[in-house]
What we know:
Elements: H1 3-10, H2 25-33, H3 43-55, H4 59-70, E1 79-83, E2 107-112, H5 121-124, E3 138-147, H6 154-178, E4 190-195, E5 199-208, E6 216-226, H7 231-270
Parallel strand pairs: 3-4
Antiparallel strand pairs: 1-2, 2-3, 4-5, 5-6
Amino acid sequence: MSGFAMQARTNGILKPHESKPPVNLGDIRERHAQSRGTASPTESMYGDYIKTVGKNPNEATMVFEVGGQLLKRYPNEDYDRAINRAFTGFPKDAGFNKGLSAPQPDFVEGLEMEEFRSLPIEDHIDGAILYKDDPYSVTLPHLAGEFKGPGKDMEKARLQSAYDGAALVYGRNQALNSIGKPSIAGHAKITTFTTDGANLNLFAHYVTPPEDGTAKYHQYPISSTNLTISHENFREGYRQLRNAQDYAREESYKLRDQLKEHWKAKRSQLAPLSSIEDEDDYQFIDREPIYQPAPPMPSRPKHGKASVLQSPHSIEASSPSMADIASSRGHKRTGFHRGR
């Protein structure tokens, strides 16, 4: 077991066989399997995919080529992607990341910070904004993915996605706790995937309260599909992944709307009361604006410095920008080396 794997286990990140199925697993699987309103990939598209996977020599090409064929885009929305970029805005003392470098998934997708512009999330929600000093940062995403080149270590991709998923769960739960609506126990709303082009694995993520002082971050398998064995399998995996994207997008917008409603209500408590007219036998004199007190704003916890000891990712050459599927800002990975 690698140093990263040992530390992740110590931090409460569970392997799939240790994880318990989420309460809503049946709903998730049903959602991923449902038919789509768009045309399924044709036999010709499947043949082209087989050739693409067979030629891919490394992970970066896999992200560009395979991701471009499998993943859906959401044009004309502030719903963005980031490729191979470390979570520089993430707190270093979140528990699950103790002694580890920042998560850096090959793919993450979510609303950009502009969608939360009127909300004070930067000051009140740790783990919400992924990238420091980036006004267009992906914020509170619900989907992340890891790619490997053909024949590479898929267990390492699985471990990396477990860490990615824990980070997304942490951010979501911090957001819900900030408005007094903690997540429903045992329910998974975060999804990750791993693929080497041939195999596609989807996982559901959630956290359970600590029993021994350490919270447990579960990574439970949703489905596994061999994309290259047949046209039908390719169609199935294609459908599952795109449905997972749609599900994550819906949950992202729902969470944003919950936060907006909460802060709208808090602001209304600070608004001056309108003049009150005489009513029945009561007389009110409205000389000056009257303000209702609002609960004190919670202060953001201070974070101590944390040294980065282990990383799930290797030192990579700059990833190519994805013309079709992402806007990447070209950060390099640090930490232990991925297997090639």
